[in-house]
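Entry 14. Two folds queued back to back today. First construct below, sequence then structure tokens.
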Amino acid sequence: MVSPSKRKINFAEEEITILIEEVDLRKKLLFASFTTSITAAQKKQAWESVRNGVNAASAARRTVDELKKKWSDINTSAKKLGAEFRRKSSATGGGPLPPPLDERTLLVMDIMGVVAVEGVEHYVDTLEEGILTMPMGQLKF
């Protein structure tokens, strides 16, 4: 007797679109640092709301962990596409421009923010006199 597969069906395009929209609605809470006003419980509740939104339009019941993993994959893909587009756009030697990024990739890049996609431009790390008051040997990293 063959046991049924435990693997869920792949994410449908509609599920991915809803996931991106739901994350966009809650991005300030989902990706904010923990503070006295932003707790782990609030973030968990926000991810539960994302899950409810995705599951409302899906035949497959997705868990929060599955949605977080899918978001991470979408995020990574958008960063790669954005970096490739920037590299090809600034390349020398003539030739055609790369095709524009699709709307979904642009939305994900907007949710992540410019620094997450492009990095910090022209950043110089300096150590000015008087800023560091603790001897270097006592710093803990």
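Second construct, same run, same settings:
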Amino acid sequence: LYFIEPKMMRRMSCKPAQRVAAPLALVAQRPASTVAIQVQGLHFVGTGLAAIALAGVGLGIGTIFGNLLVACARQPNQVKMLFNYAILGFALTEAIGLFALMLAFLMLF
């Protein structure tokens, strides 16, 4: 019995391709300003990503005051203390929003 290799499994003997140097006048030069335009446009992307934090702040403030209403309905005698805690939570959450907004404006301008 003889083993015969299929044609597609045979190794082709080929010579390495020789590189031909192109004259410098024929090579197309890319303008350097394309990279600068792409980098300048990225600050808009960063500003948009920083503005996503403002949506989280809105959700946080809504959660704080929604839970305040639930807590006041359960414990009507402690409304003043619960309101003070809610205002503290609101202030801290709003501070995060202001920092995110400041960061977005710093990246934009």
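Quick look at the second one. The mean pLDDT is 79. Residues 20 and 26 are 13 Å apart (CA to CA).
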